[in-house]
Amino acid sequence: MKKKGRVFSGARPTGRQHLGNYLGAIRNYVALQDDYECVYCVVDLHALTSLTETEFLKDHTYDMVLDWLAAGMDPKRSIIFVQSHVPQVTELHTILSMTTPLGMLTRLPTFKEKVRQQPDNVNYGLVGYPVLMAADITLYKADTVPVGVDQAAHLEFTREIVRRFNYHFGPTLIEPQIKLTDFPKVLGTDGVNKMSKSLNNHIELASSPEEIQERVMTMVTDPARRYRTDPGHPEICNVFTLHKHLSPDDAPRIEADCRNAVIGCVEHKRWFAKDLADYFALFRARRAEFASDPNYVWEVLTDGAERAQAIAKVTIAEVKERVGLP
Ligand code: TRP
Asked: Is the pTM here over 0.85, yes or no?
């Protein structure tokens, strides 16, 4: 089948993935494989900009990719690889940096936010972060980039960099389209903050049904409901929000039962925990199978790097020629 185009997306190696990662990104990555040629990258070089936990880079890469594969990201149909395994990206990063005004980088809200977050480590790589991202996307000639709103400014930046490069050196690089992941922010078990490992309000996809149940029972539910006999307000309940996305067919019934106080919050959480565990049953089975061979993930990544490199070499040769490098 003729594919619509090429997708590229990258994620920093954060280890075991959680429900927020799944609903916000992974599920979409899996679905896109039907219509696009997909290139999915573990951006380990980008991760170096914060220089924390670098000793875990390898384990985090392994754990994340194992979860990706178990979730249905398919190394036969897609290219799945590690950024640093294809060094051409750093070459392109250097070349693109020459047509990037420094002010464009230091003005970015994402850069200013990083400066606030890590005032003691405002490194050069942090400034160039979006240039490296532009190199990722353009090296693999992607025309479509699925990202969340938090990355929208970076994508606009990539488009601008491509226009500048092409203006200087003639049409060479592809200006990518942003494909906004329309999923709303996934809140954690606290019902207030975005689900994240650092806040420990997350539910790992690799959890056993018992672990899922335990975690779900700690979840904050409807803040406006005090007694079991009170009518519920599913529209402001995080458990309902997540449940609705995993079991869309049952959503009307769950909603009605909650609103009419047929079920209380504890019963609803048991229901959600069961559905969640069932939803990820195949995931757990595949994960166990892939993990039984400790080389499997690395073999996938080696193969991915070779295929990625084949594309990268062509682009780099074109770019160098355009720029006039001897
Ligand atoms: N900056 C992205 C993030 O933090 C990760 C990333 C790196 C990326 N390169 C990319 C995303 C290229 C999309 C395309 O989430």
From this structure: yes
